[in-house]
Predict the structure.
Amino acid sequence: MKIVFAGTPEFAAVALQCLHEAGYEIPLVLTQPDRPAGRGMHLHASAVKQYALAHGMPVLQPLSLRIDSKDPQRAAEARAAYERLLATDYDIMVVAAYGLILPPSILNLQPCINIHASILPRWRGAAPIHRAIESGDAETGVTIMEMEEGLDTGPMLAIERIAIDPDDNTASLHDKLAALGGRMIVDALRRVAEGNVKAIAQPEEGVTYAAKISKEEAALDFSLPAVELSRKIRAFNPFPGAHAVLNGIAIKLWAAEPIAAGSEALPGTVLACDAKNGVVVACGHGSLRITELQKPGGKRLPAAEFLKSFPLDEQTFD
């Protein structure tokens, strides 16, 4: 079985590696164009592109796959990509966190299978890992599904579930799901080749959408319950990083835990700040113990280390 692979970030690169190591022939890899990143804003290749080039796989990076785009450059690149796919000998396309919508012209060339990091139909869309943590879900998983025009609406070929641990953040849960997705896609393709798989329609109930994460969401509101705030901190680690403002300075909060005991102090009031207790802040309900912080231009530090250079006594977060 020959596979065209479409994906961009590390989640997808793990799947590409699993397919490659399983012995599948991959005549073409699609990934998004190089993007500026880092302090110098130099162009960086995606994780998928880096793996593909390191292993001799041809790479194509169109800005769009929509031939009908009103942007002439995007339309031209989409046409070139379509013609390249027409000229490529492949049996199936595997998609994982590609970031571009596949139009019918592409979907109709060969079967397309997607690796999605949720238990569909819950958390269709761009940020399923973040939203599962933020919402307090007890479990998540990976769904292997056939692709169609709708957003993550296609029939399911396989689902596996894993628990979301109380200390999981998006980074740690991402790594678990990436490994799971890589294993599952190899198994799913084996069963497809054997004719030993049946597609099952997604349930009509339980549909939720995982909207893309915005930087504006990362600003914490201490009038919210501590439990909800701790989930947000975990969900926004590593991106975009939850933060709270203190005397006009945005402090990033990377790890915290809710404390049931509340306080009559106004939400945002620092109740304690020492090596033993961390930084304890009053919330709308309960209190939040913050255990890892970062000031602008500094490093992520445990609370005890952070307080040595940035004391927080008798202060209040905005």
